[in-house]
Amino acid sequence: MIMLTGSTLTLDDVKQIVYHNEEVVLANESVQNIQKNRETVEKLLTDKQTMYGINTGFGKFSDVIIEESDLDKLQLNLIYSHACGVGEPFSEHIVRAMLLLRANALAQGYSGVRPELVTQLIKYLNAGIHPVIPQQGSLGASGDLAPLSHLALALLGEGEVIYRGKRMETGEALVSIGIHPITLKAKEGLALINGTQAMTATGVVTYLEVEKLLYQSEMVAAITLEGLQGIMDAFDHDLHMVRGHHEQVEVAKRIRQILIDSDLTTNQGQLRVQDAYSLRCIPQVLGSCWQTVHYAKEKLETEINAVTDNPLIFSEENKVISGGNFHGQPIAFAMDFLKLGIAEVANISERRTERLVNPQLNDLPAFLSPNPGLESGAMIMQYSAASLVSENKTLAHPASVDSIPSSANQEDHVSMGTIAARHALQMLQNSRRVIAIELICALQAVEYRGIKQMASRTRDFYELARKIVPSITKDRVFSTDIEKLTRWLKEEEDSNTQIRLNKGGVMHEQS
């Protein structure tokens, strides 16, 4: 059970809730803070104080004063009019993260909502009721207005949800589980949709999967090193220490630990003096990729505990402040930076695949074919990897440098942070397939070299992967293998990857 306070949520908490359905409860202190904050709103309304989005219109309509009798209708109209999302829906994991992060933001007690509204979000989360939320339509400033409006619709009993794997009308799901829809009061519609939870939820899910894929890419690179009889001197501790980048030092260390007992790797001068960059520079490149991951992690850890709606109500000072905490620039930058790391994981992987299949670059059978000429082997797998890498280069264009004015130029600078996060996730999915292709080729290469000579860790990983895809003994539809291995990499629970080693595995280097 994880308790929401608004300020203590961790990325590991998010992982447990989103992926493992850990139960969520709202802290008693948060309930009190939310209630106190709501009472401030009610008092200010009684005192006829003008407050943006509470008793005024929205955006360019901020100067339009709303009659007291229409305040609840104002919030309902807001949700209806702003539910303009289009395209394919977000995954259930991302929607779960959106429900969680929206509840956590409101839990701090600065948004002027009732405790019942936050409780409704948590009820949906715990019951597995996932609103159908289209991915496209957010500018990433004024918050993720369109996506979060679709989330809000479900709280009202409208729109559609996914419940127990079935897409249905929200009302049908609520009846089956005994949850009643909520009615919005003054400020509550705006509080639900004015925030960065679509981009942040997408960013968190992407981050969690990128971290896993990076560890896996190190293991796959290690198998490729064995398949190509790579030179281990390039991973020497002293070499990396004199440059000083921590992430580079750690990648080199993990590669040394993985391959510590391999009889397939070589030393400089044994077969050749030095390897190509895609082998020799693994620590430098992947270490830099880790830097983008760490930056994104830092910004996400802040944002998942941030209050990002507008206006905010400060009960102690009895004041309402209109500001711009909904602006997604911090997450937009973080996601665009992360995209560079994702792109390079795939870029260098594809180059290693080329070295595995190109007979001009190795002494292995051409394209790892069991019968070169009659059978093409892994030839076109490299094409697919190259295509995915090229697509990533297009998606890597920074979304955060773009801005289109909206709301009659009242909202004249926006972040496009949700686009950045969505593209990062697309790139991750592409890159996972590129790593899967390298793994298929690396597995075949080490078979030619001799499985018994592999390091104990890579051999364990080899055995696991071979349960998913068999050896290439003849040409077949390799698309099936790529997709199977891609799913396995996504779903694998840290079984034999570097993740376990990084968390204190039993493997140690000899002094």
Automatic annotation (TrEMBL):
Localization per record: Cytoplasm
GO MF: histidine ammonia-lyase activity
Reaction(s) this enzyme catalyzes, per UniProt: L-histidine = trans-urocanate + NH4(+)
Positions bearing the 5-imidazolinone (Ala-Gly) cross-link: 141-143
Tagged with keyword Lyase: yes
EC number(s) stated in the UniProt entry for this protein: 4.3.1.3
The protein's enzyme class: lyase
2,3-didehydroalanine (Ser) PTM positions: 142
Top-level taxon of the source organism: Bacteria
Pathway involvement of the protein, from the record: Amino-acid degradation; L-histidine degradation into L-glutamate; N-formimidoyl-L-glutamate from L-histidine: step 1/3
Record family assignment: Belongs to the PAL/histidase family.
HAMAP family per UniProt: His_ammonia_lyase
UniProt protein name: Histidine ammonia-lyase
Species: Ornithinibacillus salinisoli
